[in-house]
Amino acid sequence: MRLASSSTNSRSSSHTRRYRTRAPTSEVDETLFGSPKPMPSDRREKPTSKVKDKSPKNPEGETVQIITKDLIRNLRIPWTDPSGESIILPSAEFERITSASRVLTKEEREALKDAYQRKKQEEIKAAEEKKRQICVADMSRKENQILTELELEARDRTQRLLERANTLRMEQEDEVKKLNQLILSAQCQATRDAQIQEKKQIQVELLEEEKRLDAMMEVERRKALETVEQIDELRKQQRISGMQQIYDQIQQRLEEKQLQEEMKEQERQQIRENQERMNLEDLKALEKKRTEQQQLQEEVMRINAETMLAKLQRREEEKLVDMRDMEYIQKKMERDAEYEAEQRRIKKEKELEIARLRARQEKAKDYKAEQDELRARRNQEINDRKWRMKEKELAEKKAQEEAMLRAARLEQVHHKEHLLSIEAGREKAEFERVLKVQQEAVVRQKEEEEKQHHKALRYSDAIRQQMKEREFSAIAKRRDIFKEADQLIEEARQRRMRLDEIKEKKLKELKATGLSEKYCSEVERKARSCIV
């Protein structure tokens, strides 16, 4: 049997749970799904864990007992493949699969990408060349072929459209735009000169019209002066007649005022008479009022005399009432004194009765106190007995607990010694395992260094190859640039010819509009200076 430590088991379980991505995409080789072949038993990998208990061999297989920190289990390993679907790959096939599954580096991916792009560009160029050859052959075939009437019409229409498109495209050129601007400015200048001449003519006509209007205004002014003089004469006569009317009105007002003064004098005389009459009436009323006041005063004196007499009578009656009140108060005081004496006597009798009752209560209280003291003494004795019994029980219980604790401590000591011995064995096994792992790591590190060295060599070779390819690409690009420069020069020459044609055409059209030769020559001169 084999023994596997808990740390080894936990580490292996953690490795099984962790997954590291090797590539963003994955593929499975179809060889892995081939027909199953039996696997010989002598090539089976032997388990690496330590054997603790091993059962004898039997036809069914080998049984291994694995003991971990918290579990003991038996594993049965059969001698033959129970599924019958295992596959055995040759070493060459296995190496092919591993090389195909290798993840490419960034430089390798870029190299593959560049190669693919170059191949694609070559294919595109070949396709374009083939297309051009086909078009040339097709054009030559069409030129040699006799065209029908519809085809001729379509060709003419297409030719016209192309010419119009070329014309519109040339109109967008800066030189053509400048030429159009010069033509427009010349036309504007001609129009402006014509307008200035027309304006001068209009000003001359306006001056003549103003002179004619001035003469007419002078005639009208003289007529207006005569009319004003006539109006002034009429106004003078109207003022004279108005003054006469005002004088007549003043005389009439004076007469009316005199009449009003006389009427006011009569009214004042009437008012004085009325005032004298009213004064006489007031004197009569005042005399009557004095008489009434005298009578009222006499009546008041009579009423005062009667009032004084009534007051004297009321005082006599009050004196009699006061005397009766004094007698009543005297009698009441006597009754109160008798009542207080009676109350003092009753209170004294009650106090004597209370003293007798207190004496009786004291006697009863002494007897009760003796009985209470006796009962308290008995209760104290009972409580003392209970307390002693309780203390005894607690002491016995404490002794039992101490004995149990001592036994538990001894058991813990024995258990701890046993655990320490087990832990020492585990640490020894762990040390041996770590030593073995470190030795394997050293070997793997050496192998990795050798791989890195070979990889660096391959990388340097790839860099040199890329440099050569880039040099070839630069040479090809320079050739393309020279070729493109020649094409640009040819295009510039053709463009210059088209611009000259358009310039001549536009100048002819400008002259055909009937514009003055002065403006046409000016436009032509400026066109030569701006289109060079």
From TrEMBL:
Location of the protein in the cell: Cell projection, Cilium, Flagellum
InterPro entries attached to this UniProt entry: CFAP45, TPH_dom
Composition bias, Low complexity: 1-13
Main subcellular localisation: other
Identification of the protein by name: Cilia- and flagella-associated protein 45
Biased segments, Basic and acidic residues type: 40-60
Span of the signal peptide: none
One GO location term (cellular component): motile cilium
Domain annotation Trichohyalin-plectin-homology: ranges: 170-515
Keywords: Cell projection, Cilium, Coiled coil, Flagellum
